[in-house]
Amino acid sequence: MRIGIASIALEANTFNPIPTVLESFQSGMLLCGDEIWQLRDSHHELGGFLSGLSGQGVDIVPLLAAGAAPGGILSASTFSELRSRLHAQLDQSPPLDAMLLAPHGAMVSEDALDADGLWLQEIRDRMGASMPIIATIDPHANLSPLMVSATDAIISYKTNPHMDQRQRGIEAAKLITRAVKGEVKLSQAACFPPIAIEIERQFSSEGAYAELLAHAQHMQETPGVLSSSIVLGFPYADVPELGSSTIVVTDGNVLSAQPLANSLGEALWQRRHNLKSRLLSMTDAVQQAHEFPGTTCLLDMGDNVGGGSPGDCTILFEIIQQQHAGPALGVIIDPASAEQAKSAGVGAILNLQIGGKLPGTVGKPIEGKFEVMAVSDGRFTEEEPRHGGQQSFNQGTSVVVQNEELTLVLITNRVPPFSLRQITHLGVDPSKYGIIIAKGVHAPVAAYASISDHFIRVNTPGMTAADMSKFVYIHRRHPLFPLELF
Ligand SMILES: [Zn+2]
After folding, report:
1. Residue 112 alpha carbon to ligand 1 centre in Å
2. pLDDT value, residue 387
3. If you measure from the C-alpha of residue 70 to the centroid of ligand 1, how many angstroms do you get, rounded to a whole number?
4. What gap in Å lies between CA 127 and CA 230, rounded to an integer?
5. Across the strands, what pairs with 376?
6. Which residues of the chain have a pLDDT value below 70?
C-alpha cells in the first residue's frame, strides 16, 4: 500500500491588502519530499499522517508541505508555483493507492476564491475517481461543495485553540488504510446552515461550540459513523462559501451520511443565538485588566495576526499609556523599528515610532524614547503542543524595547502569538507584568495560559474585528445569521 501526503495551507484574510507570496511560505514551512519527515514528531497534522501510517506496512510518499502564517490573499503566481511543485513530486513518485491531504480550508488566491477546492479537484482529476483521498482541515475553513466532492472524507480539528491537529492526522491515516483495504466504503456529506459564527464565540472549551462538539462526538460513537465535524468558518474571507458547516463521514455500506450531517447542521442553527459575539469596549477592558490582581492577558481581536491582521495596531497600547495602566507587555510587527533598535544596541536609548505603519492598519505609531533591552535573530523552537502545531519559528530580527509604561517585543516576520517562546527566548519574564496584549482571540490561550490569571477578549477595530457587521462583503452567501437572519 503506497500513500502520498501533501499540504498547501493558508488562511487568507481578503481584507488585508498585502498579498501572501512565496517568501511567506519560505519563512513559514516549505518542505519537499523526504524533508517532510522532519515533521514526524510535530503536533501538526502532517506529523499525525506520518506517525499514523508508520508501522502499518505502508510505503509513505511525502510530496509537499507548504504553510504560511495567516495573511492576505495568495498571489496567483505563488499558487501556481506551489501546485507545480506538488505535481512535479507526483510526476516522480511511483503509483499511489491513496492520498492524505492537509489544506487549511480558508485559502483564497488572486485567481480563485475557492483555492482549496481548486487544488483538491486537480488532485482528484489526476488520481481518478476511485482513489481514496482524505483531507484534514482547520475548523476556520469556509467549506465549499467542491472540497467535499473532490475528497472521500474531510476531518476537521475539534479544538480551538487547535491542540488536536496531530490526533486528527492520525485519525485520517488510520481511516485511509481501512479504506484502501476495503474494510469501509467512505461516504461523505456536508450541510451548510445559513450561519456565520463570529470569532469571539469560537472557543471550544465553553458555550454553544463546546455543546456542538459533544453532540458531534456522540454521533461519531454511533456504529457506521467514521467521522463528524463542526466547521466554524472564517469570517474574514469574503467568498461565496463563507460561514459554518458540518461534515459527516460514514461507512456507506452501513449508513447514509447526509441525514446525519443535516441533523448536526440543525443543532448548529438551533444554538445560533448563543453563537453571537459578546463585545467589551477597549477602555472597559483596560480598566478591568488594571484592577484585576495578577496578570491579565488582553486579547486584541481586531488585530489578530493568526486571522491575517497586520499585527502592528497600537490602539490598546495607547489606551494603556493614557490610563497609566502599565507596565504592560506586547509584541508588535515592525521590521524598521526592530532594525533601528538593533543598530543602536542593547542599553541604547533612542526615539522610535513603533507600529501603526502597515497598510490598512488602525491607529498611529507610538512615538517616544525607548531603551533597548535585548536583541535576537528571532529563531526559537516550541516543544509543547500549541495552536498550529509548529515547532520551529523564525520571526526575524527581534528586539525588546521599554519605557515606563510599555515593554514591546518588536519582530520582523509575521509570527502569530502561538508560543510564549516568542517573548521568553529574549529573556523577558511575562509573569512580571500586570497586562499582556496578545494579538489573537483563542489561539494565544494555549501559549499564555501558564502565565495569565485572566483573559479578556477586547472589541478592537481592524481587519479581524469581532463584529462582522463592520465589514463590507461582496461575494459571501446571503442570507446569513447574524447579518440578515435573526
Ligand atoms: Zn484555525
Report:
1. 20
2. 87
3. 9
4. 28
5. 398
6. none
**Ligand 1 center to residue 233 CA distance, Å?**
9
Looking at residue 20, the DSSP 8-state letter turns out to be B
Cβ-contact 52, 172 below 8 angstroms: yes
* pLDDT tens per residue across span 355-381: 999 999 999 999 999 999 999 999 999
Give residue 139 CA to ligand 1 midpoint distance, Å: 6
Measured distance CA(294)–CA(277) in Å, rounded: 26
Closest CA to 154 of 167, 143, 165, 140: 143
CA of 106 to the centre of ligand 1 (A): 9
Q: Write down the pLDDT at residue 164.
A: 97
User: What residues contact residue 23 under an 8 Å CB cut-off, 6+ apart?
Assistant: none
C-alpha distances in angstroms, 80 versus 12, 22, 84, 101, 110?
16, 10, 6, 18, 11
Residue 389 pLDDT: 87
Asked if 307 and 416 count as a contact pair (C-beta separation under 8 A), the reply is: no
φ and ψ of 91, to 5 deg: -60, -35
Alpha carbon 155 to its chain centroid, in Å, reads: 15
2-275: CATH topology: Rossmann fold (3.40.50)
Centre of ligand 1 to C-alpha 249, Å, is 21
Where along the chain do the CATH 3.40.50.2300 domains lie? 2-275
Dihedral sign, CA of 301, 388, 273, 479? positive
Q: What's the gap in Å between 231 CA and the centre of ligand 1?
A: 10
- Which phi and psi (to 5°) does residue 357 adopt? -120, -25
Q: How far does the centroid of ligand 1 lie from the alpha carbon of residue 140, in Å?
A: 5
- Note the pLDDT of residue 388: 86
Residue 250, strand partner residues: 187, 225
Query: Quick one: DSSP state of residue 102?
Result: -
**Can you give the C-alpha Rg of the chain in angstroms?**
22
126 CA to middle of ligand 1, Å?
29
Residue type, 211: E
Compute, in angstroms, the gap from residue 138 CA to the centroid of ligand 1. Answer: 5
* Cα 326 to middle of ligand 1, angstroms: 31
* C-alpha to C-alpha distance for 449 and 102, rounded to whole angstroms: 28
Give the bridge partners for 417, in sequence order.
none
